[in-house]
Amino acid sequence: MDSFYRKPLKISSEKKSGKKDDGRAINPSTATIHPLNVKKERVDSISIPGPFIGSDTESTHSSTPGRKTSKVSKNNGCVKKVKKSLNNKRNLKTKSKNALQPGSSTKKKLKVSEKSSIEEGRETFAWIIHPVPIDDYFSTTWEKRPLHICREDPSYYKALITTAKLDAILREHNVEFTKNLDITSYQNEQRETHNPDGRALPAQVWEAYNEGCSIRMLNPQAFNEHVFALCAVLQEFFGCMVGANLYLTPPGTQGFAPHYDDIEAFVIQLEGKKHWRLYSPREPNEELPRFSSENLLEKDIGKPIMDVVLEAGDLLYFPRGTIHQANALPDSHSFHITVSCYQKNSWGDFLLKLIPAALEAALEEDVEFRRGLPQDYLQYMGVAHCENDSVIINRKRTEFISKLKSLTQKLFSHAPVDAAADQMGKDFIRDALPPDLKDGSKLYTD
């Protein structure tokens, strides 16, 4: 409903780099991507505008990203990676009497970060939504309205992941269709998934892309250390699971039907351009929903409240329940990552943990909850009696409901609020990524 949303925000951020860069790793003038056309990126030194990034070298031995030791130096608010010598790497890996050990008194011991993981997460989130101050964002935008940040800096998010790295993931890891990757299309208001069985081989994926299908990777954090680090540090700040999806869309195509999701969405445009249209929830019961919608028809979603083209370096945020659809422009592919959070992390979800436990405690501790129901309550309660005009029945109904209200008010005195919080915390721990440990912290782990 329009009353639910405040007016969407669009913010322009000053360009921070004079370097000419269109943010593209593939040729936008053609719909063709072939592994031979994807440049292999080997970067010895890279400026990374965020506190969460680790090594630019990815592990090729397992599907779990591993961080490699590297020195960092601050430069104009960025973290700049400095290439290490091979000897330094060998020294860190070699166990000897001079090797650094937990509890060692050597002055050369690696320094453990003095910042808490929550502080690091806050800094990372501040980088994502810059130039909007975090406090302003949560007071005026979070769960209230969409936000578009037009950054005019194609390289701002470039260090996260590129199409070249996506190609490397397909070649070096066991990426499976449906479990890790979907091939989709949307034409004539029909959304289809074209997943074969088994491993998503690069040749299959790029052939589907060349035929106009979109590529969605469901859990890139399992294959790319930068995305892993981003999600791992943000989950510390948000206090809930943070996930990510990658979307690669050919020029002039759309991969998904209009729909809404059950997550807070941060769309980070990495390469190319994408045309987004956002729509208000159709009904109040679709505001901040607990479940995502089915595919929707154009005739059922009304007029967009925001119509915008994202370019590399831009950010688009929208609350859960926001109906959305997006298509790549005819002259450019699109590559973006959607970072998501707050799935089933509402007051209602907390109460789903609390109320059953409170009722169990009340039944054990308070005899009023164990007293029997009136023997004739089915003669005046239930749908068949809800509109009865009988004075006697209405009086009995009023007394019955009054008793329930009294017990409900007493119920909170038995509510184990902290235990319910612990249950929510257990769910978070179960779903969360492992912490993204820094080099110094690793010395104190097995």
TrEMBL record:
Domain JmjC: 213-358
Stated role: Oxygenase that can act as both a histone lysine demethylase and a ribosomal histidine hydroxylase. Specifically demethylates 'Lys-4' (H3K4me) and 'Lys-36' (H3K36me) of histone H3, thereby playing a central role in histone code.
Organism from which the protein derives: Cloeon dipterum
Phylogenetic classification of the source organism: Eukaryota, Metazoa, Ecdysozoa, Arthropoda, Hexapoda
Family from the record: Belongs to the ROX family. NO66 subfamily.
Database matches in PROSITE patterns: JMJC
Chief site of localization: nucleus
Alphabetical keyword list: Chromatin regulator, Dioxygenase, Iron, Metal-binding, Nucleus, Oxidoreductase, Repressor, Transcription, Transcription regulation
Cofactor: Fe(2+)
EC number: 1.14.11.27
Compositional bias per record (Basic and acidic residues), positions renumbered to this chain: 12-24
Ranges of biased composition (kind: Basic residues): 87-96
Protein's UniProt name: Bifunctional lysine-specific demethylase and histidyl-hydroxylase
Origin superkingdom: Eukaryota
Compositionally skewed regions (Polar residues) per UniProt: 56-74
Any one GO BP annotation for this protein: response to ethanol
Cofactor note: Binds 1 Fe(2+) ion per subunit.
Compartments (UniProt record): Nucleus
InterPro entries found in the cross-reference section: JmjC_dom, NO66-like
Enzymatic reactions: N(6),N(6)-dimethyl-L-lysyl(36)-[histone H3] + 2 2-oxoglutarate + 2 O2 = L-lysyl(36)-[histone H3] + 2 formaldehyde + 2 succinate + 2 CO2
GO MF entries: histone H3K36me/H3K36me2 demethylase activity; histone H3K4 demethylase activity; iron ion binding
